[in-house]
Design brief:
The chain is α/β, with parallel strands linked by helices. The protein is built from seven helices and seven strands. The chain has a seven-stranded parallel sheet with strand order 3-2-1-4-5-6-7, sandwiched between helices. The longest helix is centred in the N-terminal third of the chain and has 15 residues, at 32-46. It is globular and about 45 Å long.
């Protein structure tokens, strides 16, 4: 099962379809998750999904390179940065709000709270998680996974898939393993 079959549920060919990719960490940084996020959005753009990366603004790179896409070695796509509230839950809500403001018709990303807010708004969402749910957020995850507009969970290993299925049986048939592949620097 490849990414294109999963993302096809997002109706990329629908006129006006707009995919918001919600980052769970500040942007930009030199961290691996930022590089992965940039590559994901670039790949989605190349596949015709018209993504917009929505992330909280990082203070790590105080001056962005003139060519942010060249800096990360990816093809261009849209980016929207929101102020970092200092609270990851609020950041997810602010990112969802920004995506809706920019006309997002589908949400994908690593922000559990952002994807939950999108699902509560009735907008189709797919969550990508590389770890178990953070302690205390199990009720949020459980409710997200029950929403009609929630389309699926992407994890990076079969062990993580088994973990999620044991903890959240409602994910049966809506959890996909896509091993993370890193390109050598």
């Amino acid at each position: 099962l490849g990414p294109d079959r999963i993302y096809a549920k997002m109706k990329k060919d629908e006129p006006g379809a707009r995919l918001a990719y919600l980052a769970s960490s500040p942007f930009p940084t030199r961290n691996a998750n930022c590089i992965h996020t940039m590559r994901m959005c670039s790949r989605l753009a190349g596949g015709g999904y018209n993504p917009i990366l929505i992330a909280s603004k990082s203070d790590e790179l105080t001056k962005l390179p003139d060519d942010i896409f060249g800096f990360f070695g990816v093809n261009p796509f849209n980016i929207a940065l929101v102020a970092d509230s200092g609270n990851f839950k609020m950041n997810g809500i602010l990112q969802c709000k920004e995506g809706l403001h920019r006309g997002a018709t589908h949400f994908l990303g690593r922000s559990l709270v952002g994807c939950y807010a999108a699902a509560l708004a009735g907008v189709p969402s797919v969550l990508e998680h590389h770890t178990p749910v953070r302690a205390g957020l199990e009720p949020v995850a459980s409710d997200l996974f029950r929403q009609r507009s929630f389309r699926g969970l992407i994890v990076i290993s079969h062990g993580l898939k088994d973990f999620y299925l044991n903890q959240f049986p409602q994910l049966k048939g809506r959890i996909y393993v896509l091993p993370e592949a890193a390109r050598p620097p």
